[in-house]
Amino acid sequence: MAKVQVLNVAVLDNPSPFGNPFQFEITFECMEDLPEDLEWKIIYVGSAESEEYDQVLDSVLVGPVPAGRHMFVFQADAPNTGLIPESDAVGVTVVLITCTYRGQEFIRIGYYVNNEYTDPELRENPPVKPNYTQLQRNILASNPRVTRFHINWEATLDKMEDSENVDPAPNTMLPPTSMPSKAPPLGLMPDNSMDCL
Amino acid sequence: MKLLKPSWVNHNGKPIFSVDIHPDGTKFATGGQGEDSGKVVIWNMAPVLREEDEKNENIPKLLCQMDNHLACVNCVRWSNNGLYLASGGDDKLVMVWKRAAFIGPSTVFGSSSKLANVEQWRCVMILRNHTGDVMDVAWSPHDVWLASCSVDNTIVIWNARKFPEIVMTLKGHTGLVKGLTWDPVGKYIASQADDHSLKVWRTMDWQMETNITKPFSECGGTTHVLRLSWSPDGQYLVSAHAMNNSGPTAQIIERDGWKTNMDFVGHRKAVTVVKFNPKIFKKKQKNGSTPKPSCPYCCCAVGSKDRSLSVWLTSLKRPLVVIHDLFDKSIMDITWTLNGLGLLVCSMDGTVAFLDFSQDELGDPLNEEEKNAIHQNIYGKSLAITMESHLSSTIIENPEMLKYQQERQGNQNPNGAQGSGPENQTPKLTNVLNGESLEDIRKNLLKKQVETRTADGRRRITPLWISHQRCSTASQSLQPTHLRTRTGKFTSVNSIGMKSNLLLTSASKMEPMKALDSRFTERSKATPGVTSVPLTIGITPLDRVKDSSSVKEPKVKDETSSDSEDKIMAKPLSMAKRKGEMEGAEVVEKRKKGRPRKDAKMMMPISQPFPQTPVSAEKEPSRLITPVAVLKLPTPSIQKSFSTQVSTDAIAYLEVENEVSVVSGARLSQLKWSRDGREWDTLLTSRITIATGSSDIVAVACEDRTLSVFTTCGRRLIPSIMLPAPLAALHCSGHFVMVLMASATLSVWDVQKQTALVKNESLNPILSGTDATVSQSFLTQQGVAVVSLSNGKTYCFNSSLETWNLIADKQDSLVQCADFRNCLTSQDALGSMGPLALTQGRNLSAGRLASRLSSTPHHLQQGMTLAFLENQLSSALMLLSASEYRHWLLIYARFLVNEGYEMRLRELCQDLLGPVHKSSSSSWEPTVLGLRKRDLLTEVLPVIGQNLRFQRLFTEYQDQLELLRLK
């Protein structure tokens, strides 16, 4: 069974202006001491149409994790507006929090995010080019969608046991160099999105 | 009969594979498939039983749901005492759940239902052994064992007292094992498998008693489960799927000779589950009619793949009732209420049905006493009793035994009352971590949390540790003294009912929503952004259109229940440990000085070391004199003057002043002794290196390798003894003098009897092969020489065996792993004073690692503890330390009693009792170390009396002892 159970995610600073950093207070419980760190990511879905517009807002390592209940606040900068299709800037999208252990994703928490203008005038007649300074981000905190994946929690030895859960696609179709790398290419990852405004 | 299908009992339409009613009848558990995991749900029974409770919204229906199982849950079973729930699933695991008290409602994060868990059940043990799906689990009578069976063809018997210890793995089935049932008497366990066999195994030796294949040879096809059942009187075992004349049946197997002459016929498809009513019934006495004796009978429910349920009474030839079309799919499990009148059935179609019978229909259930009487009649003493140490139904046969049992209960109760006291108070002082409330911490968590950068520049957050993982008493046995505090207040606010104030008007927004929905479940194969895999639309069924139009504007309220546990408890633990290590280090440091001393406190140099003569220069001549003997041990340096305290009943002081005066070329040294104002002094012609004394004598060693012995009045007892080598250490105790020479030889004399107990015995046997040096040596009151080495080993020399015996070893893993703390009483903590305690350190490190080793199999630890205790016992014997012998004997006896080592206990008692009738050939010694063995036995017997299991043993020795006393 999963060694880490997410007990709660509280969405802080919500609703907030579009440019504010995301803040999630994550509470999780761990069954036994973890020898390796957990890796958490916040992924902003720029467009529902394509994964191409997904932005990893930030990824952090969380550790050490002894058995017990823990909490931390995961703060990540707002998405790089330059990478969001203009047509998808306003409206409903998704922000995902994922956690991986030993490179395997075991939980995915999704929230609907509604971006809208606070000014009724703008709401009625939205500008063609989105005005991000006027946008308000509202995360539907009450309705998280949680997907759990069955992963191999132990060290390499019995890796085969859970092999059916690992999608073969990345192994067969991608050259070894583009295997899930630790750091996503810089071009797509905003180092600091504040200056993008 | 009333029939009810509570529609609210469901797993959101997913199959329910198992159902079990809690022994107290207030709740029941279901197990089955969850959204993307296995699911165990605990439900309230009251709304099933009473319609008004079902309508009352204040009465919760769902008590707790657990989605910890990674795959479908095939079986849920409550322990007979109701404290635990065991679940087995397709993830190959058996989980044992326990209710965590003091934790308030909380939701399962992200679950679609917003219903809070009213009760908190936590997984306290994960039992991993099976290599395939676990199909059935069963608790033995009195919860001694838990059995699980699996598609890996094995049955594992777990020790329910010492999880995760495995008692036995039963191998023999050649197909998937799909059902288990214990004999209510405790003698057998039966299993049914896909290999067309039903096997009965003995619990005595875990061997197969019988293998029944005939009724199953025709069985074709497979059923998901084969839950068989044993009748409450133990007389009949009823199988699941069997065939008779190509018709599906439930085979009845008689306990007597395992005959298979009868079966339950009528189902059109395979029988999946059979469940006996826990009660035995007798005919309802009709008012007015004359009571006529009627034979008690059992009641049995049979569920089948044909979706129908039949209920049978063993007194009738026809079924009592058959219910067709109750479900859309196969029946998976049946459970009876403890009163025998209610019945819950679950089905693969994801629904549950409740049947309520009246006593008119089933008969009068026998009460427990009558049921026991039936067992008693058929089986004599129920075998379950011998396996259970404290059974309420065990008859106490001996008045003495009764006394001890009552004392024992009396002792337990105040403890229990004490224990509950502080725990009740804790909720009030909750919520505080290091003086800060959790709420405060949460406000500042972002600022406070430790964030670092890894070498490759990545952010790394150290999470705030807010509580222990286990909220139940699972680990309390290891840390009984630690209080667990929990929050009593909960700030949880469910955001139910927050109305949306925003409506999406654009219908075109619906399409992206589908796409977005899929993101929730789709796993990122690689880091998003890298892959440009086209998004597959509609992976998840889109029943969430509602969601899209109900994007709410939630007021941010913290949903977390701020249950926290006190963090502090971990600290003292580590502190204590560190302290222990510090002490250890200190001891080692002291010894490294290389100077053997009796006790650090006894030597108090009052002046500086003699400056003129370097130590090495002093040693040179002696090395020339004894070229053969290699100097292995350091000799003490000569001091100008020093004084020593001789600890006897009254404290005496020995003062030495070297070279007080020079008389005609000879340097004289003075030895002064004083006690309570009385004092004497004497002069010696050589410089004194060591002076020591006991309550009876004073011994002085001089530079010229002479040893002088005086009485405490200053009279010389024997002329100077010429030592073969310079002296390394000198000890006195009583009339005994022990010298340890630099040549690593040992001598011990009894100066009163003027005999040598140990004569120039070499330390080579213990020193050779190690770099160790002598770190400590002393002489016991009984004249046993003890030498401790720097490698942590301590030896004593036994003069009758003429051997060195290892009595203590600091590195010994036995010492560190032995866990006998539950055998210690409060007096014992003080009682262990003596040479053995001195060598092993007063705070014996025994068991220090024991708690950490909790994961090691219990039988291993049991063995280590046993070996350790036996070592202690024999060491105390070797050291002639009577009080310690008695101390360890009692601990040993308690351990044997607790762990049930009957043979050893018997041997121990036999040795202590000795032959009842005197015979000249007997070599039995009535005393050991001056203690009368039979007195020891009278001390041991009450210990034995605390375990009912040994009441025969107790009675046997109690009677013999009484007999001897009368003689």
UniProtKB/TrEMBL annotation, chain A:
Belongs to the ASF1 family. GO terms for molecular function: histone binding. Its main location: nucleus. GO terms for biological process: DNA replication-dependent chromatin assembly. This is Anti-silencing function 1Bb histone chaperone. One of its GO terms (cellular component) is chromatin. It is found in: Nucleus. The keyword Chaperone applies. Residues 161-197 are annotated as: Disordered.
Automatic annotation (TrEMBL), chain B:
Residues 714-912 form the Protein HIRA-like C-terminal domain. Gene3D superfamilies: YVTN repeat-like/Quinoprotein amine dehydrogenase (2.130.10.10). It is found in: Nucleus. One of its GO terms (cellular component) is chromatin. Residues 407-429 have a biased composition (Polar residues). Residues 405-429, 545-599 are annotated as: Disordered. Pfam families: Beta-prop_CAF1B_HIR1, Hira. Residues 545-569 have a biased composition (Basic and acidic residues). This is Protein HIRA. It comes from Cyprinus carpio carpio.
